[in-house]
Design brief:
Elements lengths: L1 E4 L5 H13 L3 E6 L4 E6 L6 H6 L4 E5 L19 E3 L2 E3 L5 E5 L6 H14 L3 E3 L17 H14 L3 E4 L3 H10 L2 E4 L7 H7 L6 E4 L6 H13 L5 E5 L17 H8 L4 E3 L1 H5 L2 H14 L3 E5 L17 H17 L5
Parallel strand pairs: 7-8, 7-14, 8-9, 9-10, 10-11, 11-12, 12-13, 13-14
Antiparallel strand pairs: 1-3, 1-4, 2-3, 5-6
Helix pairs in contact: 3-4, 3-11, 6-7, 10-11
Length: about 325
């Protein structure tokens, strides 16, 4: 059960309400969003629960949620979450395109690609400064030097940047440079990290885990929301199945399902979802048709020389061609690109 406190409620009044709720034998978890104080209440509810709650002052509304994810649910917030990052509206009518190489490999190559995707119509730049790799011997990223290059690219193009944060230790430094903090699939259930990101005043893009159910994915988002950060983006990036032809199996059915269950924006990453550059454009079209609010696309000026994920990266020219095709798909369903 979620209780939304009345506007302008004071700390003393909240404490008074918490005391009364605990007096009924309920446990109370407090969360502060940008617009209101929220109390999440759990315990045994009798038939007289309605009467008990009505006797408590300072409560604006009570929401009963049938899902374990409460703050992420449509029951809590029927309207879509929409917010702005660096002049880019997330979750609105426009389908947001995030583009760039998987990793920041060097200043010259990254700035070259950043300029190219800007010309191609990208809204946000991507690039990993910290790279979690399956092998400890693979390229692990340029770390802070990579973050500085991302910041330079933002100044040069005017586009906000998104990059991955690996652990609690790197949250502060990544937040100092990036506009959106990304949680990779491997960290989707790193709950300590998620709680830390819930206390950062910047948007968080959370990728679905390799073997995560949709409910588990939404519960991961719930960790961030429960700490007061309401700017969360869900990202479908493929799940692991028995299929080996593609890198992962891109679950596009997750897009309409997540949008039905949750008010949070839903993005799709067809680059990681398929692992093959030839599949990226068709899956981007399908993602938009399925209702995706945004796309993550890997673009590299020389994919054959990429230090990671070259086979799934588009050349800048291919990216520009794809963007022209995506505009037509978006128009058909009443959106723009």
């Amino acid at each position: 059960m979620i209780m939304v406190m009345s506007p302008g409620v004071t700390e003393k009044e909240i404490e008074e309400v918490e005391k009364q709720l605990k007096g009924f034998g309920w446990s109370v978890h407090r969360s502060r969003g940008e617009k209101s104080f929220i109390l999440r209440v759990s315990g045994e509810y009798g038939d007289d629960v309605g009467t008990a709650i009505r006797s408590i002052p300072y409560i604006d509304k009570v929401i009963n949620v049938s899902h374990p994810f409460e703050l992420a649910s449509r029951a809590y917030q029927p309207e879509k979450t929409v917010f702005e990052v660096g002049g880019v509206e997330i979750g609105g009518r426009k389908v947001v395109v995030i583009a760039g190489p998987c990793a920041v490999e060097g200043r010259g190559s990254y700035l070259l690609t950043a300029e190219a995707v800007k010309r191609g119509g990208a809204d946000v730049l991507r690039g990993g400064a910290y790279k979690p790799r399956s092998s400890p011997y693979s390229f692990q990223g340029l770390q802070e030097e990579g973050l500085k290059i991302l910041a330079e690219a933002r100044s040069m193009t005017g586009l906000p940047v998104v990059t991955e944060v690996l652990d609690r230790r790197s949250v502060e430094i990544v937040a100092a440079y990036a506009d959106i903090l990304q949680v990779g699939s491997r960290n989707m259930q790193n709950f300590v990290l998620l709680k830390e990101l819930g206390q950062v005043g910047k948007p968080v893009l959370i990728k679905r885990g390799l073997s995560a159910t949709i409910e588990e994915w939404l519960m991961a988002a719930e960790y961030i929301l429960s700490e007061g950060n309401e700017k969360v983006i869900l990202c479908e990036r493929g799940i692991r199945t028995f299929e080996t032809y593609t890198r992962n199996t891109l679950d596009l059915s997750a897009v309409p399902i997540a949008r039905e269950l949750s008010h949070l924006p839903v993005f799709v990453d067809p680059s990681h979802g398929t692992g093959r550059w030839r599949c990226v454009s068709p899956m981007c079209m399908a993602a938009i048709a399925a209702g995706a609010d945004g796309l993550l696309v890997e673009v590299h000026s020389s994919p054959k020389e990429a230090l990671c994920d070259g086979p799934q990266s588009l050349l800048p020219g291919k990216f520009s061609q794809m963007m022209d095709s995506l505009k037509k798909v978006a128009e058909i369903i009443g959106r723009n690109l």
